[in-house]
Amino acid sequence: MKNIYLLAIPIGVGLLTGLFLAFFPSSNDNSYTLTESNLIQNGSPILGNPSASITILEFGDYQCTFCYKFHQGTLNTIKHDFIDTGKVKLVFKDFPLNGSDSILAAQGAYCAQDQEKYWQYHDEIYKNWAGERTGWITRDSLDKFASTVNLNLDKFNECLDSQKYLEKVNQLYDFGKKIGVDATPSFFVFNNEKIIKITGNQPLEVFLKTIDEF
Question: In the 3-class helix/strand/coil scheme, how is the chain assigned residue by residue?
Fold first, then answer.
């Protein structure tokens, strides 16, 4: 798994728009331009106050080592100090670099969302993390996580069996690639004026400095 330790320089709206027009030279379609709403839409439910002026968008993989470390470490402080206090909101988008098991886990999280327990299930997957490509993500393990967060298993399995969210997960991966994501975790921290990109499980201080930029 790539883990490029990089904190990008803040990018102004005009320059950022130019960058994405380079990605999509013929784009008159707002779905292909980089806007606050397009970065948020189609991802996870918002964690935190939807009106928070600063958004952290994470592109992650449930098997990714550094995603796991972020969720078990840095995110706890960000959640306590910024998300729970209404200053920042968090959105997660799947970027399943580790293959079919990661895609399956991502579908499981969205099936849990159908029962209004996306974040509980999301967190349960990371709590049970057991490495990259080691076979720990199975239908049995996903059912176990579902039971732990008190999902209706019949509805959960019906959702997984139908592959209801497979296209959504694939679209999120494609979107990430289009905007330059090539490693997990990758973060876009933004408001309606600027965006800062962070790649990798950076130290907490990097996230704190980034949030201070806003």
Answer: CCCCCEECCCEEHHHHHHHHHHHCCCCCCHHHCCCHHHHHCCCCCCECCCCCCEEEEEEECCCCHHHHHHHHCHHHHHHHHHHCCCCEEEEEEECCCCCHHHHHHHHHHHHHHCCCCHHHHHHHHHHCCCCCCCCCCCHHHHHHHHHHCCCCHHHHHHHHHHCCCHHHHHHHHHHHHHCCCCCCCEEEEECCCEEEEEECCCCHHHHHHHHHCC
What is the predicted pLDDT for the residue at 114?
Answer: 98
26 falls within a domain: yes
Q: How many domains does the chain have?
A: 1
Least confident range of 2-16, 27-41, 140-154: 2-16
- State which residues form the domain around 16: 6-212
Task: Report the predicted TM-score, pTM, of the whole model to 2 decimal places.
Answer: 0.84
More confident residue, 91 or 21: 91
In a domain, 105, yes or no: yes
Residue 22 falls within a domain, yes or no? yes
pLDDT of residue 35: 87
